[in-house]
Amino acid sequence: MGTARGLSQVLKEARQGGKPTSATQKVPRSGYRYDLDGLRGIAIAFVVLFHVFVGKVSGGVDVFLLLSGYFFLGSQLRYADRPDSSINPWWPIWRTLRRLLPALVLVLGVSMVLILAWVPRLQRIEIANQAVASLFYVQNWELASQGAAYGAASAEVSPFQHLWSMAVQGQFYLFAILLSMAIILIRRYRPEYSAVRLATPVLAVLTSVSFFSAILWHFIDQSVNYYSTFTRFWELGLGALLVLHAPRILISAKTKSILAAVGLFMVLSTGFFMDGAETFPGFPALYPILGACLVILGDGKISVFLSRKWMLWLGDIAYPLYLWHWPLLIIFTALFNQEEPSIWLGIAVIMLSLGLAQLTNKYVEKPMQQQGKRPLFRESRSADALQKLRSSRPARMRAYAGIAVVAVGFALTSTPQVLYQRVLDTQMSDLDPEIYPGALSLAGFDAPEVKPKPNPYVLADTVSPAWAKGCMSVFGDDPSELAPDNYDEDYCAFGNPNSPVEVYLVGGSHAEQWMAPLDALGKQHNFKVIPLVRQSCPTFVVELDGIFSDDCIEFNEKVIERLAEVKPDLVVSNSTRPLLEKGRGIDEVPESYITLWDFLEAEDIPFMGLRDNPWFIQPGGEGWMVSQCYEEEQSLVDCSITKDNFYAPVDPAEKELAIRNNMLAVDTSRWFCPDDLCIPVIGNVYVYRDGNHMSDEYAQSLAPFLWSNMRRLLVA
């Protein structure tokens, strides 16, 4: 395929748009495809407009990825086709880092400074982790691991979620460099094989596998599918194949003009016809991608339009514009306490983003780019570089700027630890019960008028003691293992570890959140507390509701075996929950729960069932950060729900547990919903860390209420 002529000739024709195929060719072409720079610029412009004003994925990023494959791999293979090419990968890696990293570090650094200085609601560990992941070009995998669906702009969305595409692009660049190095090595021994011939089958296979994987994974896990490098590869791979083989496609000038017009329409209309967040990079992504391919194959008036000066300017600033617009949009939306950006805020963000993109391009991107040509085989540039540092002021300035980039990057890596330390400080501090009585105010204790504590934004990153200590099984953990078995005997023993009286806490995170008061009560009343808990996994013997995972079923088999073996003095868990998975938001007793109670009754093991606390759910199904709501609105009414929005009129577990020996249903609703209103602040203490989990501070204040019920089943 590539033996008749070298890749340099093929890529020369690609840059020129192919040889003229008709004497009627009307648009003169220069050696560089300026129209594709314009296409890149208009694609990113539509990304910005749709992010700001529409809240949908426009397809512009997909076009950007295609063009990245087209340009970058083409340049790598053009070099690999040279007989004097060097196999040293350092130069292309260094050149790529100098082109991409300074602007990225600048945006990440400024964004984190703004967040830490003025935007408390974005001071979350997960966001700091995403900043670090973006710095190392693994943000797509960080988002996938966090289970983050790609969301429209709001005050709750990560300001760095858009950088998943930069991570995919960076990972592809590394692949392209390695592929070109492999081709150089092969051509050392088989020079008759061109880079086109060697690269085509590899790219064709990987692109095809990636495309069909993207279609399949849409039905398995669209969130992972959206971010995955493997399912995104086909978009970049198709661009690489296009640069290799588009010049071979002979098309008349008139047809090229039509193709370009149709292609540009497809690219620009994608966001109006579909929401890429729901389906890309699956089959529907072909629409904008094929549109971009038609523009690449096309010519005529559309190409002239895309090559105009202002379009080229837009293409020139496309990268920093993409970097800046989303963090600014999210940060200012949160700063001005808007749930979604207003029209005027959106316009201001676009204007500011354009200005910062221009400045970044002029004073950061271009000065830091590598200007020298790529070294050839056995050619060393080290001595020349050192000589320039000694003799050239611009070279020294670039070196100082490089040191600054490294310093800011290093500082960014510390931000998760800074925020984590705030969480530890919050969890280690004790609130004065005379000023912050929490639930004790329900029993008549006075609560003076002070600002509630703890910090509701820090609360969002806290977890209860068992989880914090690693004594809770979480997503991804082996479901055949119980967390306490991974440590020394007493490591996961709370309360009094030396007591012969054993209380087992079982269930999911809504059971585990009671660990703080149970730990305190165990120390006070001489009993040991052992957690056998797993994230999103209530305890049952048989799964009868059809909503809990296979991992949860396997985990519960181990829990039941352990309970039968040790026969604890008391088992504590939840007795109700809403079945949101079935569209039911009022608390009830799932059928699976009753199988646990039947087992415990047969084993003569006492049980205390705690009615679930309220779940604050937004209309879209996401949790409502009610403590943060009160911090911002200072209104109990606006940040509360009425009791009948969550609780059934009577505790659903009461009737079922009352007929069993040594079993007790505890109706906790009065602890959360005084005067039939479920509120975020009680006794100057924030009740919730998120939309449905208690804060440890409020849970601690419930210890006396909890003990008044426990003592009926447990004599310590």
UniProtKB/TrEMBL annotation:
A GO cellular component term found in this entry reads: membrane
Cite the SGNH domain residue spans from the record: 487-706
What is an example of a GO molecular function annotated in this UniProt entry? acyltransferase activity, transferring groups other than amino-acyl groups
Instruction: Say if the entry is tagged with keyword Ion transport.
Output: no
What is the organism of origin for this protein?
Corynebacterium glutamicum (strain ATCC 13032 / DSM 20300 / JCM 1318 / BCRC 11384 / CCUG 27702 / LMG 3730 / NBRC 12168 / NCIMB 10025 / NRRL B-2784 / 534)
Q: Which UniProt keywords apply?
A: Acyltransferase, Membrane, Transferase, Transmembrane, Transmembrane helix
Q: What is this protein called?
A: Predicted acyltransferases
* Record lineage: Bacteria, Bacillati, Actinomycetota, Actinomycetes, Mycobacteriales
Transmembrane segment boundaries: 38-57, 100-119, 163-186, 198-220, 232-251, 258-274, 280-298, 310-336, 342-364, 399-420
Q: Which residues form the Acyltransferase domain?
A: 34-359
Gene Ontology biological-process entries: lipopolysaccharide biosynthetic process
Tell me any Pfam family this protein matches.
SGNH
InterPro entries (alphabetical): Acyl_transf_3_dom, Acyltransferase_3, SGNH
Query: Is Cell wall biogenesis/degradation among the key words of this record?
Result: no
